[in-house]
């Protein structure tokens, strides 16, 4: 909460009042917009009040949103179940997906009499048809279940008709009156609001593009405009500024303020703990665990003033006081070499004559406005883009020797480079660890009970489906291994492990032995690799899981004080918290925690190149801090570092403060 109100000048500039503002929102005396009685509790439907912990427990001030007030819901995230993120729970409540229980039956009756949750709406209107939520933490494609989402359509391989629906079609569809009965946009003229919004949101030049081709920032802006065009009474935007470049953030913030002031529609925003609160917000619903407390921004400000200065500095800018041991001064071996790289879709040029070399030990911040081609450039590196094959000079890692699939490989020679078209995509997936919005959307959630352990274990092969399921496969080899002393303590825990560690292949050539010795040596090496993989999974989960950031919402028996990854005792076996997390179904986690698991997956195999595109999206301040510390790699032990000197990392973010490295430790590549 400390850095909640890092006021940001860009949010303080108030815009000239629009004509819509003439409704003079601030002077209106009307019924409350939202009303939750004091001391109310919120339960999942079907949960008996006495026996289950509530999802939310409101304080004695309850929650009343009056006309003219501007609210933000601010919360950390939990790890699932009752610990789900506060904004998520507020959304569920506002959409009527939960049961609100006032403290007494009299309070219940008074509340119902006064109009319930939305007193400002006439009783004849179903409130849930007038409330709209757009969340940017959730997945945007592939349905909600997790069937594989083919994102290659973005890169020019469109086949289905629905991939060709343009932005104009989609937005016009939103302006169709609900009573018209027609779903055709043909001949439909854009409204004044349509013109104004698309202009302000910088979408005008993109109207004829298929929506699947829009960049992340462009898509987010389009989703906001689409929701506004549907003319709800109340629009809740969850993390609306994530992934937007600075100019887009400024124009969106201004536009939201104008719309809210004109009540057309009323806007409420969801923010993660630690995010800037726009200056036009007047009130905050703060959700910590299950506790929901409504405050004015003034109150929050005076609470901040009471925090000792040293504590403030630590929370708002931990990067300034923790210099990293990472350096980029030495010339590491080349890992990526691209010269005169170009990407165009017909006449539309996205990348022109790009030259970039990435070396071992380097930490890069890839910068550029929304739509400048950052994701496209990364998709060339991962080999996902069809035009990666046609580049004249695009050299990528091609040897497995430095992918650290065995402990001894940590001292392996520099990786070999070769042209992308000679490197199989499956191999690239092992050699390049990735977290990106596209990958986040594509990662399957429906795989039967895929645990956090299994999700992380897919990082060794770079696939999406866990292989060698069950710990049984590990038990025997570990028990008979000559080198198992190195993993004593881990051994007991792995028998309860929640999945395998991927296929372990050992090349005959790699062993350099005669035929008779090969089989025996192969078996020994397989055991060694499996042991290393088990240990790596526990290491990344300990460093990036709830043991590093939890507010004890996950396992109540665990220590209630959150601790950072470097202050963790180096465990002889994983903590109870980490073990419990490893067994949790991946799909049950909130998006921020899922991203942390996918970060663990990208790092677990210690690939030579790691690409992190908007990896912080959905994480709260504690999670982000844990991840950044791990990436900075302050431990002296090479194995305990998030990334080593033999690896290169590229980070994409529009927020400078999200980059884990400082000053000269990080190189910048601007598109
Ligand atoms: N098939 C396509 N046809 C036309 N234009 C396309 C196609 N695919 C992508 N583009 C355009 O390429 C540009 C670059 O997109 P990209 O996703 O690489 O941007 P970005 O820099 O990652 O943006 P953001 O910061 O918003 O994520 C965008 O303007 C996008 O509309």
CATH structural fold name of one domain:
Rossmann fold
Classified by CATH, the class of one domain is Alpha Beta
Mean pLDDT: 75
How is the biggest beta sheet arranged? 9 strands, mixed
Level-2 CATH architecture of one domain: 3-Layer(aba) Sandwich
- Indicate the proportion of strand residues: 15-25%
State the end-to-end CA separation: 34 Å
Adjacency order of strands in the biggest sheet: 6-2-3-11-10-5-9-8-7
Share of residues in helices: 25-40%
Structural features, described:
It comes from Gymnopilus dilepis. Residues 311-330, 396-423, 471-494, 555-579 are annotated as: Disordered. Residues 478-487 have a biased composition (Polar residues). There is one protein chain. The chain is an alpha/beta fold and 671 residues long. Among the domains are: 29-130 and 232-305, 3-Layer(aba) Sandwich (Rossmann fold); 152-175 and 189-230, no CATH class. It has 21 helices and 20 strands. The strands form four sheets. The chain has a nine-stranded mixed sheet, sandwiched between helices. A five-stranded parallel sheet has the order 17-18-19-14-20, with helices on both faces. Strand 8 (234-238), helix 7 and strand 9 form a beta-alpha-beta unit. The protein is globular, with a radius of gyration of 26 Å. 45% of the residues are buried. The structure holds adenosine-5'-triphosphate. Adenosine-5'-triphosphate binds at residues 154, 156, 209, 213-218, 345, 348, 350, 368, 370-376. Adenosine-5'-triphosphate binds next to helix 6, strand 13 and helix 10.
């Amino acid at each position: 909460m400390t850095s909640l109100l890092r006021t940001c000048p860009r949010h303080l500039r108030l815009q000239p009042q629009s004509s819509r503002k003439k409704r003079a929102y601030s002077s209106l005396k009307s019924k409350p917009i939202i009303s939750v009685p004091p001391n109310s509790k919120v339960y999942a439907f079907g949960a008996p009040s006495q026996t289950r912990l509530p999802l939310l427990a409101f304080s004695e001030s309850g929650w009343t949103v009056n006309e003219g007030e501007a609210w933000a819901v601010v919360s950390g995230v939990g790890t699932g179940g009752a610990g789900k993120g506060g904004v998520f729970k507020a959304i569920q409540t506002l959409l009527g997906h939960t049961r609100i229980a006032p403290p007494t039956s009299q309070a219940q009756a008074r509340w119902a009499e006064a109009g319930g949750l939305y007193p400002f709406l006439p009783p004849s209107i179903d409130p849930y048809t007038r409330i709209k939520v757009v969340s940017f933490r959730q997945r945007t494609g592939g349905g909600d279940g997790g069937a594989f989402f083919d994102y290659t359509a973005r890169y020019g391989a469109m086949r289905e008709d629905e991939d060709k629906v343009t932005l104009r079609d989609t937005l016009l569809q939103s302006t169709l009156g609900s009573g018209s009965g027609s779903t055709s946009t043909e001949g439909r003229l854009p409204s004044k609001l349509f013109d104004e919004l698309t202009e302000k949101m910088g979408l005008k030049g993109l109207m004829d593009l298929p929506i699947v081709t829009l960049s992340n920032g462009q898509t987010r802006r389009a989703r906001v405009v689409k929701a506004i065009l549907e003319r709800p009474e109340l629009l809740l935007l969850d993390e609306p500024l994530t992934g937007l470049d600075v100019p887009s953030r400024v124009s969106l913030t201004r536009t939201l303020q104008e719309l809210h002031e004109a009540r057309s529609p009323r806007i409420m925003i969801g923010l993660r703990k630690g995010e800037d609160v726009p200056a036009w917000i007047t009130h905050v619903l703060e959700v910590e665990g299950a506790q929901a407390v409504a405050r004015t921004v003034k109150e929050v400000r005076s609470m901040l003033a009471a925090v000792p200065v040293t504590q403030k500095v630590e929370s708002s800018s931990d990067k300034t006081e923790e210099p990293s041991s990472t350096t980029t001064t030495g010339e590491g071996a080349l890992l990526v070499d691209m010269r005169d790289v170009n990407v165009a879709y017909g006449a539309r040029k996205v990348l022109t004559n790009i030259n970039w070399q990435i070396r071992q030990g380097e930490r890069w911040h890839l910068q550029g406005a929304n739509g400048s081609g950052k994701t496209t450039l990364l998709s060339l590196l991962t080999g996902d883009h069809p035009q990666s094959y046609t580049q004249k000079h695009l050299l990528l890692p091609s040897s497995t020797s430095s992918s650290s699939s065995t402990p001894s490989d940590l001292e392996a020679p520099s990786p070999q480079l070769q042209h992308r078209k000679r490197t199989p995509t499956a191999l690239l997936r092992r050699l390049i660890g990735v977290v990106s919005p596209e990958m986040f959307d594509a990662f399957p959630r429906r795989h039967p009970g895929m645990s956090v352990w299994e999700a992380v274990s897919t990082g060794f092969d770079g696939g999406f489906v866990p292989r060698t399921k069950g710990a049984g496969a590990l038990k025997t080899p570990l028990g008979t291994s000559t080198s198992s002393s190195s993993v004593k303590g881990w051994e007991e825990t792995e028998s309860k492990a929640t999945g395998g560690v991927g296929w372990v292949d050992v090349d005959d050539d790699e062993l350099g032995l005669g035929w008779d010795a090969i089989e025996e040596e192969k078996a020994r090496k397989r055991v060694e690799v499996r042991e290393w993989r088990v240990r790596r999974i526990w290491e990344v989960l300990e460093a990036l899981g709830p043991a590093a950031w939890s507010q004890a919402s996950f396992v109540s028996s665990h220590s209630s004080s959150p601790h950072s990854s470097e202050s963790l005792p180096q465990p002889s076996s994983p903590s109870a918290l980490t073990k419990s997390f490893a067994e949790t179904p991946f799909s049950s986690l909130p998006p921020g925690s899922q991203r942390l698991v996918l970060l663990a997956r990208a790092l677990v195999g210690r690939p030579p190149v790691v690409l992190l595109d908007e990896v912080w999206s959905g994480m709260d301040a504690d999670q982000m801090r844990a991840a950044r510390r791990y990436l900075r790699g302050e431990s002296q032990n090479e194995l305990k570092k998030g990334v080593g000197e033999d690896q290169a990392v590229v980070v994409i973010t529009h927020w400078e403060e999200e980059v884990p490295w400082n000053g000269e430790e990080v190189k910048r590549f601007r598109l």
